[in-house]
Amino acid sequence: MKLYHITNNTASSVAIADIPVVDYVELYGDLKLRMEDSRYHVAHYFATECERGLKFYIIILDDKTSEVLISSFVPDYYAEGLASLTAVHPQFHPFEREINELYGVHFDRHPWLKPLRFSHDRRNKLSTMDTYPFYTIAGDELHEVNVGPIHAGIIEPGAFRFICNGEQVLHLEIALGYQHRGVESEMLRDNNSLRRTLIAESIAGDTAVGHATAYAELVEKLADRSVESDLMLERMIAIELERIAMHIADTGALATDIGFQLYQVACEALRTVVINTTQAWCGNRFGKSLIRPLGTNHPMTEAKRELIIKNITDVRRRYEELRADILEDHTLLARFEQCGLVPKSEMERIGGVGQAARASGLRRDIRATHPSGYYATEHSHESIVKQDGDVMSRLMMRLDEVLQSADVILNTLASYKPTAKLSAPDYFAKLHAEHLSFSLVEGWRGEICHVALTDSEGNIAKYKIKDPSLHNWLGLAIAVRSEGISDFPINNKSFNLSYCGHDL
Questions:
Q1: Is there a smaller number of Cβ atoms within 10 Å at the N or the C end of the chain?
Q2: Measuring CA to CA, which residue among 66, 62, 82 is closest to residue 74?
């Protein structure tokens, strides 16, 4: 019996009847061996209620062949517990923790079966942030340092508990789940596709374009309808503008954390140019309203094309000068190099994705490994990869990707002739009934994955969202081990993960 339905990120949605329903013991045995090869990693793993109790879906990505492997199982014995995949492959830990939290499924030998989000519909209502089981170490020479949940910068809430020996961090545990927006359930409240698009734009405010693109591509697969090549191109431009803006912002933030105010001010000015360019295109600095399913309300015009070329050419030139200054600043380099090391082997174990994974030598980039849209049809992306896995490497990823994204935009727009005749959005497209649809998008942080299941009438009955932060928060905890606690801010900023992208 085959274990998986095999597809890819450019194919349409999959009939649920075509997804094998397998024995969990057999699937576990296959994944135990398969996931030892770093070419594979888990994109999503979740459960949903069915007549027989719970049905589990798992989506595995093959980064070598661009295949997507989908399987499902309905075990009659899940109430007694399932063998934990996390016990052999830690990258499964957030998915099994969420399933446990929502449905009470116990995973035998799971090393860290703690609440993931404290969502309102969790099975155990007695499980609260006040009773979170933080890891502890006994010792007269050790002390704990608690940071949060109220952030010192008055941003989003998260609790960080350090166990230290003097100034050295032995262990950091990150507890999230302070926000309860109910994003996934809000996606099911009604069949208003425009409303769903607005929610997708708000999953993580700094990744509005990335998440809106993921929702749009998912719906287009469910409707089995393609979009114009020019629309694919314009979506690519939008997502690379978002990448440039956020990478520049992070460059400045890292400079701020070590007292280099000049670099921070320069980056602020450059980021402003980029987001103002996006605003001139669609009316919103963060790209909200720009991405819509099956069409656009803001087709690029010749004037907007010229403005983007002008501004990005200037930003690229000025950022390259800043990059040269940074790489000649020995004080800065000494602060960042060999700080916050996350080896490639650790990134593989935790399922790290995006630019943080690539900074550790792990080539995880949806644009290259599982391309869709313009990346699949017109532009073959070459991923930038660093090897050292330290703060400097994570900074270098940004320094190089800004220039790379700028070049992609400029080279593409040089020969592009906007028609301004692109299709308008379609919020009433008929969706295939009893299908599973997924989308994979490389946001600026990394791999975004949206999954939807439709019912017998073609209405979306289940919606699951994964922001890249879900994988990478554990990477931050690993990065600060054996570091001085004063190095936490620059390590934290070198990842710049999303609280709301995790909490949903």
A1: N
A2: 82
